[in-house]
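B., you asked whether I could sanity-check this one before it goes into the benchmark set. Here's the sequence:
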Amino acid sequence: MRLGFMTACLPEMELEEIVKWAKEKGFGMLEVACWPRVFEKRRYAGTQHIDVENFTEEKAQEIKELFQSNHLEISSLGYYPNNLDPDLESRCFYHEHLKKVIQAAEKLEVKVVGTFVGRDPRMNVEESLEEFKKVFPDLVKFAEDHGVKLAIENCPMLYSLDRWPGGTNLATTPEIWRRMFEMIPSDYFGLNLDPSHLIWQQIDYVKAVYDFKEKIFHVHAKDTRIDWNRLDEVGIFGFGWYIDKVAGTGDIDWNSFINALYEVGYNYVVSIEHEDRSFEKDQESKLRGILLAKQLLEPYIV
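And here's what the prediction gave me:
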């Protein structure tokens, strides 16, 4: 297993600069952000470290040489829009860009693309699954045709009252994952598993590793701390009681989680996803946060 990190939190840095820093600090892999160059107000969205528009074999070779010369690999290309957006024009745009990310991954010989399923927050689970069944088979088939696995992240995308109770991502719980994998029984459709989104839902993130061992294509390392005083004030339907933290500084038991990954035979990346507001004052602060996560996780990685 190897430690890496997601580049989305570093939009002010160029890919070459990030690669050289990652090599210097002893990382093995990078999950590279591939958003289009359009404004997104969502935090840590919109970062583009590889431009997949009109992506050529020559550009792919240039990037492969950059990574090879620095003894690094790309664990996945990441693009996380709402692929079930109720605005059909936006949805179409997202799908077309996601397909370009998949094609770029093929050229780069990267086997995984990370994304969201998405959701119309006005729909209940049953309605959302019906929409998923209409939309996602084509995207998975496209990925499969290009030899690339789609790894869906399990973040509920629930950050404001206008998204309650559904959020803008359907793939949030083991029950829903099972139903999605039954609808699309493809070896190219699986999880980018992030335990930080399970702990605050009171879901056993270690059990999830054992239950979905065949479907874990990629792993995110982000932590969550439960603010019990805030929870006592606002209850589980409130906000601000589960807090994004640098991996190793929250309530996740990383020893148990990573041990479970070893036991089920997972042997790919543990990719640090930095979203800790305590370490995002500036670029240097974010880099310190990534390094702190590395230092705290390294004892579990062999």
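One thing to flag: The chain has one domain: 2-300. Otherwise nothing jumped out at me.
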